Amino acid sequence: MSDHPSTYTPKSGIEKWLDARLPILRLAYDSFVDYPTPKNLNYWWTFGGILSLCLGIQIISGIVLAMHYVPHIDHAFDSLERIRRDVNGGWLIQFVHSNGASMFFFAVYIHMFRGLYYGSYKAPREVLWLLGCVIYFLMIATAFMGYVLPWGQMSYYGAVVITNLIGAIPLVGPSILTWLQGGFSVDQATLNRFFSLHYLLPFVIAGVVVLHVWALHVVGQNNPTGVEIKSKEDTVPFTPYATVKDAAAMILFLMLFSVFVFFMPDALGHADNYVKANPLQTPAHIVPEWYMLPFYAILRAIPDKLIGVIAMFAAIAVIFALPWLDTSKVKSMRYRPVMRWFFVLFVITCCLLGWCGGQLPEDLVFSLGTDDHGNAIGLKVVLLSQILTAYYFAFFLIIMPWIGLKEEPLPVPASISEAVLANHAKH
Amino acid sequence: MSEPVNGTVEGHDDPSRRDFIYIAAGAAAVGAVAAVAVPLIGQMNPAADTLALASIEYDVGKVAEGQQVVVKWRGKPLFVRHRTAAEIQEAQGADLGGMKDPQPDSDRVKAGKEQYLVLVGVCTHLGCVPNMGGSEFGGWFCPCHGSDYDTSGRIRKGPAPKNLEVPEYAFLSDTKIKVG
Ligand code: HEM
Ligand code: FES
What we know:
Chain B: Its cofactor is [2Fe-2S] cluster. The complex is a heterodimer. By secondary structure, chain A is mainly alpha-helical. Chain A contains 15 helices and four strands. Chain A has helices at 13-21, 24-32, 47-66, 76-85, 90-117, 126-148, 153-166, 173-181, 188-219, 238-263, 293-301, 305-321, 339-357, 381-406, 416-426; strands spanning 36-38, 235-237, 364-370, 376-380.
C-alpha cells in the first residue's frame, strides 16, 4: 500500500549505485517481496499470478509461431499444417498457443467471478476494476483476431460474422465495415491486418496489466472478508507467503493445461477449422470459441439485428459499470445472505448462456412431445437464451442496486485478524 | 496572463505575444495530429486494386432447371439460380403484406427471363452464405442464425433485415450475362 514505507536496503555496491540512479530493484522488492498482503487470502486470489503466467506463455509461444506463420489467404492454412507437422517442436508450440488462449480465458473468468463475489470492484478499487475490464475486452479482441489467423472455415466465418456486427450501426456502419475489412469482404487485407494487430495487442495488454498492478498496489488487495487492512496484524509479507501459494496454484494450473496440450489438444476446437476457408460455402453450424459463447447466445436471443448487436456489447459494457450499480456497503458476499444466492444464479446463468450459444437456436432444450404435424415441441434454445439474457441484465441493473438497499447483511468482523482468530477458535 | 512576466510591468501589459505563441503552437499540434491521422486511418480503406471493381460474364444457359451455380464475384459468392415453373409461381404469388422487406418478384429478375435469379449470396444479417435447401419457403436458409429466404431471395423469417441483394447485371445475349 502507498503508506507502506520502503524497507529495501541495497546491500552490494552495485545495488547502491543502481538504487541512486534507477530504483528498480527497490520497486520490485517493495512490490513483490515485502509487500503486505492480507493474511486470509484463499486460493481464488492466485489467479492474478496465473493470468500473468498465461500472458507470458501466449507472448512467447506467439512470437515463435510468427516466425513460421504466413499471413496470406493462400498460405496461412498450409503454413499452420507445416508448423504442426514439419517445424521442430512446432506441434507443441501451436497446441500451447491455441489451448493457452482457452486456459487464459478460464483463468480470467474465475478471476472476474472472484472479484464479483468478494466485492473487489467497490471503493477504493473502481479504477482497478475498470482496468481489469479493459484487459478483458482487449483479450477478446486479441483472441478473436488470433482465431482468424489459421484461416479455416470457422476462422473465416467467425471473421465474417463479427466484422459484420459493425455493419449493423445505422448510417456509418457499412463504411466502417469496409474500412475494417479493407475491402468488400473478409479477404487478404483483413487477414493481414488482423495478424498485425494480433501481434500488437498482447503488448498493449501487458501495458494495461502494469497499470492494473499499480492500481492494486495503491489501494491494496481486497480479501475474503472484504474488510480493509487496519494494522500490521492483518498482513503477511508477499514473499514467501503469497509467492509460494501462487507458485503452488500455477503448478496445478499447468497440470490442467498439460492435460489439454498433450492428451486432448483439439477438444476445445472445432473440426471445421481443419477445413480451409471457403468464401462460397458456410459450414452447417458455426459457433465461436467456448469463451465467447455466452455473448453469442445473447446476440442470437434477440431477433432484431441492431438490438442484438447492442445487447451483446451492452453485456460487456455493463461489467464496467458494476462499481456504480452495487449499492451495498458490505463488500464480501460472505456477509450478504441474499445477494450470494443471486450470485450463484448468475454464475449458472453465464454457464447456461454458454451452453445455449453452442446450440442451434431452433433446437429444443427438452421435448414435450409432438404437435399435430409431428414436429417436436418443447423449450426452444432461443427462448431459454432470452430468459437467461433477461436475468443477466437484471442481475446488474435491477438486483445489484435493489438488493443492496434492502438486504440485512450479517455482522462483519472488525478486522481481518479478528476474523482469522475467530475461525481458528472454531476448529 | 495576469502574472507579470520576468517581473517587469511590460510583460504584464503585453500578454498578446505569449498568447500568440500558445495558440499558434496549439493549432500547429492539432493540425499535425490531423495530418498524421488522415493517412493512418485512410490506409485501412480498400486499396486501389481492391477498388478496381471487376465485372464477370457468365453463361446462364449452363445452369440446369432447378439448379444453382455459385460463382465468385468481387470476393463474394454469386448465386445464379435457374428456377422451376413452380418456384417462379410461388415467388410471384407470395403475399407481400407480411414481408420484412416487401418487393415484388418482378423487381428482382429481368422481364422475360423470370427463370433466372441472380443474387449476391451474402446473408444480410451478418454475412454468412445461405444454403439452397433447408428453407421453409423453398429458397435459401442461412445456417448461422437461421434467416430464411424465399424463391425470390426475399427475407421471410429470421434476423436478417433485408432481401438478398440483386447485383447490377444485364443480359448480353439470350443466355450470357454481365455482372457488375
Ligand atoms: C493475449 C494473448 C494472446 C491470445 C489470447 C492469443 C490467442 C490466439 C488464438 C485463439 C489463436 C488461434 C489458435 C488456433 O485456433 O489454432 C492464435 C493464433 C496465433 N497467434 Fe495468438 N494469442 C495471443 C498472443 C499472441 C502473440 C503475442 C503473438 C505474437 C506474434 C501471437 C501470434 C499468433 C500466431 C502467429 C497465430 C497463428 C497460429 C495459430 O493459429 O496457432 N499470439 N492466437
Ligand atoms: S448471418 Fe445469416 S442469419 Fe445471421
